[in-house]
Amino acid sequence: MSDNTQTFSCILLFGGPGCGKGTQGVVLGAVPNMVHLSSGDVFRSLDKDSDLGKEFLSYSTKGLLVPDELTVRVVKQHLDKMVESGKLDSDYHTLILDGIPRTKEQVKLIEPFTDIKRVVYLMMEDRDALVQRLAGRAQKANRPDDADPDVIRKRIEVYEAETAPVIDEYNKKIVAKVNADQPPLAVLRDVADSLVGHVSPTL
Ligand code: ADP
Fold first, then answer.
1. Which residues 6+ apart lie within 8 Å of 177 measured at CB?
2. CATH architecture classification, 8-195
3. Please, are residues 115 and 7 in contact by the beta-carbon 8 Å criterion?
């Protein structure tokens, strides 16, 4: 049995759709004591024909967020499975949260099992570049939600209304702003700089 009461040290990658959270998260997740957790990937890994998989698609294909309780339940179950299978150990790993929390309610719901040590805010000012990144990604990945300009617009709207205010829930002292309009390697350098010495003595 896994210990369901454990708390995970976390780094939160924060920013709008297309800001590069996923790209940075995958690289950081390759560091031995870090594990990348993308809520979008967790949802996409659901069987499309299952009730849960269908429910996810009914939201994501419209650019809408999955309801808070359901999101946190699915993500927590995924974490529990990782712990059970030995892929995640709260004594050793720092979790890289990518895509969660996305609402103020989710901030509360994840509190019992997360300890957010640092928030990396990937800031993109260049709106045209963002729309281009999303459109490019639709072709590469299994992302119907990136293919339709109306859905992209909706996701940006939902981000601005629901998710952007989440940053105010965190103490400014733990928030590091990174210019995400730069090429990925330059963003990675700045993300790493914002973390070294700020998360744990071993990072
Ligand atoms: P992006 O960051 O590019 O918008 P994600 O891969 O993070 O996309 O998420 C894809 C979809 O999964 C979202 O549009 C949403 O429907 C759903 N989703 C992911 N994370 C959450 C979350 N924390 N809360 C609600 N819905 C979520």
1. 121, 123
2. 3-Layer(aba) Sandwich (3.40)
3. yes
Cα 39 to ligand 1 centroid, rounded to whole Å: 6
Ligand 1 mean position to 202 CA, how many Å? Answer: 30
**pLDDT, tens digit, for every residue of 167-203?**
999 999 999 999 999 999 999 999 999 999 888 777 7
Quick one: 88 exposed, middle or buried, by C-beta within 10 A (0-12, 13-18, 19+)?
Answer: buried
Pocket of ligand 1, candidates 12, 36, 39: which has the most ligand atoms within 8 Å of its Cβ, to mutate? 39
What's the full length of the chain, in residues? Answer: 203
CA of 201 to the centre of ligand 1 (A): 32
Q: Which residue has the tokens 């299978």?
A: 85
Please return the burial class of 55, using the count of CB atoms within 10 Å of its CB with bins 0-12, 13-18 and 19+: middle
Percent of the chain with pLDDT over 90: 76
The domains of the chain are located at 8-195
Predicted TM-score (pTM) of this structure: 0.92
